[in-house]
Design brief:
The chain is mainly alpha-helical and 296 residues long. The strands form five sheets. The chain has a three-stranded antiparallel beta sheet, with no helix packed on it. Strands 1-4 form a two-stranded antiparallel ribbon. It has a two-stranded antiparallel ribbon with strand order 2-3. It starts with a strand and ends with a helix.
């Protein structure tokens, strides 16, 4: 086990497995662990002002911390952490997702890509290459599905234009070796087609069957599409016709919760202005831009 904790490389998929595992299979222990970890992440890794669209202080963001004392472990974020906004959408935490997404979109706007690591203290990339990762596009897609705010279609258009301008090659799309000078590498990762392009396509194809029946499907952490089926939520003893073991009070409470139904109600509480105006109020967007170095 490492000495620090964060949301990016090495741990990002774990958070998704917990929550999506519960949605898929209905194991109350998965939801219990996810809720506990989600609370801990917000308490220990989240820095900045308390609320996304109100109050004073630095822009909310999630950092890497030392496990022992919770102190800051680094001043960089990696591109994989952009997935977190999408998971927050599934969890119904829309306002938080809006703020987290804004940070990574600001980085994209500065470079026309996401560097693998960005140092927010130096306002510069620590690791400069961009292998066409899907995480920002995925979160953009999920935020649009949750809010229907056309702003996220604009984000998708911006990303698409950047890919066409900087990553397009003679045969496919190339990894950017450096987001500053846009030099290319002779490789295209498989996740570009299986995830990045898929989420971009679905973002703009509003009448797609998957979008029209989103509650029936679940994307895995690698972008595979699974159909949600009550059969998968049946316990082994139900398959074999055995009596169900006695459950604890916690299991009784959690086992009746459909995570998508539960969190879908939170999406209906999104303020009207988040659906039609800028998701992040203008003064806070300017603050994020300055924090990333867009105004320099």
């Amino acid at each position: 086990m490492g000495s620090w904790a964060g949301l990016g490389a090495g741990s990002d998929s774990f958070y998704e497995y917990l929550f999506k595992g519960y949605i898929m299979y209905g194991d109350p222990e998965d939801l219990k662990m996810f809720r506990e970890i989600y609370t801990s992440v917000k308490q220990s890794l989240r820095k900045g002002r308390d609320r996304c669209n109100s109050g004073e202080g630095n822009p909310p963001m999630y950092v890497n911390v030392n496990i022992g004392d919770g102190s800051l472990a680094s001043t960089w974020v990696d591109s994989l952490q952009a997935f977190w906004a999408g998971l927050q959408v599934l969890n119904g935490d829309i306002e938080e997702a809006i703020c987290h997404h804004a940070v990574y979109y600001a980085i994209w706007r500065r470079y026309g890509a996401l560097p693998e690591r960005f140092n927010w203290h130096l306002k510069a990339p620590d690791v400069r290459f961009y292998p066409l990762r899907p995480e920002l596009v995925e979160s953009t897609y999920l935020l649009y599905q949750a809010t229907k705010n056309p702003f996220y279609l604009h984000v998708g258009t911006d990303i698409l234009k950047s890919l066409e301008q900087h990553a397009k090659a003679k045969c496919g799309y190339a990894t950017l070796h450096c987001v500053i000078n846009k030099t290319q590498e002779d490789r295209m990762e498989s996740f570009f087609l299986s995830e990045t392009c898929k989420y971009l396509y679905l973002l703009f194809d509003k009448d797609n069957h998957v979008n029209q029946h989103a509650r029936r499907y679940l994307f895995t952490t690698e972008g595979h599409l699974f159909r949600l089926d009550k059969t998968f939520r049946r316990s082994p003893w139900e398959w074999e016709g055995l009596s169900q073991p006695k459950r604890s009070k916690v299991e009784e409470q959690l086992s009746v919760v459909d995570a998508r139904g539960m969190n879908g109600t939170n999406c209906n509480k999104i303020p009207t202005e988040r659906r039609y105006l800028l998701p992040l109020q203008r003064q806070y967007q300017h603050q994020v831009d300055s924090f990333i170095g867009l105004n320099t």
